[in-house]
Amino acid sequence: MDPLSPGLKLMWPLVRLFAFYISENLSVDYLERVSKKLQVSGLSYMMTAEQYFAIRIISTLFALMLATICGLLLEDISFKYLFLAGVLGYFLPVMTLNDLRKKRQGLIVKALPVYLDYLTMSIEAGLNMTGAITQAVERGPDGPLKIEFEKVTRDMRAGMSRAQSFRNMADRIQVTEINSLVSALAQAEKTGASLGQTLRVQSDQRRVERFQRAEKKALEAPVKLVFPLIVFIFPVTFMILAFPIAMKFMYEL
């Protein structure tokens, strides 16, 4: 299991307690869906689906307790605010899980061209796919993609076929670029095409897509700046410009 964060370490005994008593009441379909989400987010080696649901329950109780304390201090306890706090506490772990998934997938897509370059050079140098992945893992940047390639290497050494090992990685990551890579490698293996050429095409395509994403974000920047300009910057600017004019009129009157 992966190490827990400091916050989870403090509440983990309570998480295990809730998970033990609640797990038998959860459906198998729900647990499978949550397990899949944890796997895509990279948390499957940190907690189980039962423990994740227990975290949601604890988050709900904590939000209700915090709202109750605030209501007592303000002498205004309203059911509406308690309900909103409970809903927020219940869905906060879901939003956190989605953010972790997006962050992890972004890191994987960012590091993919680098690993494809290592794989291409290793294959063209005469290594097989297992040796190429090993070289890429040793020299590639740290991150979730490195961990996934290590899992692929372990699966292949354990006797699993190369195509199945890469398909399992694609199922764990669920990124379009990885799915495209896996499909290209499977097609090259079936048709007997050159792996080096296939990987080089994939590397060039991923690098072009990364440049296009950066260009898209640069073009979206002016649009995203409109709201803070209108709400925060323009009013302050008008106040600064209007203050000496208003003071001048007041003194003249």
If you had to describe this structure to a student in words, what would you say it looks like?
The chain crosses the membrane at residues 52-74, 225-247. Keywords: Cell membrane, Membrane, Transmembrane, Transmembrane helix. Its main location: membrane. The chain has helices at residues 6-22, 28-41, 49-74, 79-124, 129-139, 144-157, 162-173, 176-191, 195-252. It is flat and about 90 Å long. Helix 6 packs antiparallel against helix 7 (162-173). The model has no long low-confidence stretch (mean pLDDT 88). The chain is mainly alpha-helical. It starts with 5 loop residues before the first helix and ends with a helix. It contains nine helices and no strands. The longest helix has 58 residues, at 195-252.
Task: Please summarize what this structure is.
By secondary structure, the chain is an all-alpha fold.
Largest sheet: none
Radius of gyration, CA atoms, in whole angstroms: 26 Å
Please identify the structural class as seen in this structure.
mainly alpha
What is the percentage of strand-forming residues? under 5%
Instruction: Summarize model confidence as the mean pLDDT.
Output: 88
Shape: flat
DSSP helix fraction: over 70%
Could you name the ranges where pLDDT drops below 50 across 5 or more consecutive residues?
A: none
- Assembly type of the chains comes to single chain
Tally of helical runs: 9
| Amino- and carboxy-terminal Cα gap | 76 Å
Q: How many individual β-strands?
A: 0
Q: Order of SSEs, N→C?
A: HHHHHHHHH
